[in-house]
Structure prediction request, 577 residues.
Amino acid sequence: MADPEIKSWAPDHESRSAAVTESRPAQAVLMAIAFGFLGIFLLLPLIIVFHEALAKGLDAYTQALSDSDTRSAIRLTLLVAAISVPLNVVFGISAAWAIAKFEFKGKAFLTTLIDLPFSVSPVISGLVYVLLFGAQGLLGGWLKANGIQILFAVPGIVLATVFVTFPFVARELIPLMQEQGNGDEEAALSLGANGWQTFWYVTLPNVKWGLLYGVLLCNARAMGEFGAVSVVSGHIRGLTNTMPLHVEILYNEYNAVGAFAVASLLAGLALVTLVLKTLLEMRYGAEIAASRGH
Amino acid sequence: MTTAPAPAGWRFRQPSVIPGFGLTLGFSLAYLTLIILIPLSGLVWRSAALGWPEFWSIVTDRRTVNALEISFGTAFVAAAVNVVFGTLVAWVLVRYRFPGRRVVDAMVDLPFALPTAVAGIALTTLYAPNGWIGKLLMPLGIKVAYTPLGIVIALIFIGLPFVVRTVQPIMEEIDREVEEAAATLGASRFQIITRILFPGLAPAITTGFALAFARGVGEYGSVIFIAGNLPYKSEIAPLLIVIRLEEYNYPAATAIAAIMLLLSFVMLLIINLAQSWSRKRYG
Prediction:
């Protein structure tokens, strides 16, 4: 309701906002500092990865990537992500269903426990499995007697990866499903759907974008994990070397082009993750849980 | 908290028509126990089995103490730097309009998405004496790579999004009418920022600091390349754990891990207390 009389003496929009924002020069200085900081700390590291990877030309780059050890590192990283991400998706959906759809004692404590791996150093995440399965470990003797190899082999790498990526899907789905409430599910059940049908045709479509968001972040971390995997892998070239570990080996051998070539693939994965994440936030922001970040 | 009318006996969960409680909770608990709880309690059990004298002699060993000091010290400095610049970046993203704002906003999450080993070798190459940035700092007598300063640089990279992403949503919620009211009452911009905006943001800034700090203490991949890893000088605690493991010195690795977890827990407790204090004071 615009009263012309009031409008006549009210300051125009420009001067009113001037009172509650910084002066133009101050804005320019603050923006310059922020961009300078981001440029030095975020953009330059990204640029140098591709710069170093291509430092000796495209041929050297493709040659570095066709190396057989590099190939097996890529295969192992894909394999580990292909096992550990679905495991955490099943857990995330299951935990979110129990926590978001029901009221029970100890719920807050359970939610805290799920976030626990985020506050543990990746090295410690690997160490706990060494203490469990290592030669001097609690189960080490039994495993050896039965000829089961967990440490310095793929199962250990998968376990360490599952540990560090444990919370990603669950913490995305829990707030989302809590916000959506039980109304849709109760309607479906009252119309005669069984539990699985309710989940498959009602709940899953409701949370699909949030789930995809969680999977995206989980996958990025699973493929990029270094500390935890480094402790349990044993660094056997061509066998237990994931891509991040292979980057380390090549770098320590002063093979800069090789190290940065593998690193450029991982940086490419990070960029794709960021683009997809931004697209999801733009299109389906309301359908993705409010708690963002990790 | 109001007490509900006394229920007919203690109830573990409230009744619901939705099925699948037993299945989903049972599976979640079993998975959580197998993957997280049993391995972590193994660590606690192993360090308890060491006995107090041995545990104490390991954690008071000079190399251990120095490594812990370096880890916690550099993480503290990096988190403090991130509080200043992270808050500024959040402010620019929330309040100012400029072309490419969405790209800059998305870029802030790069440290979450970029594998730590990649960040590590990239930063080392930049800050090495012959690197793009290292070359510029050399004449000034500043050495970054292979010194504790390099650790701080890596932890600034790792921790930045924690501060920005914690502070940003709270900034977006600030009611600008309060600022307008203060301005009409004659407050200067500086007074508005320090007296009105900052108190509202203080709890979020504290949380951002805590998250960046906690992440920095445990960080390994991005640090070990740039740190130089000189014992007593630039060796972080997670690396010392790895070194002890490689020496098959399991007791030492376990004890250092246990003391790290304990110290992080105490720090987070203190920060939680500070947070509830700042909420009471400013909230």
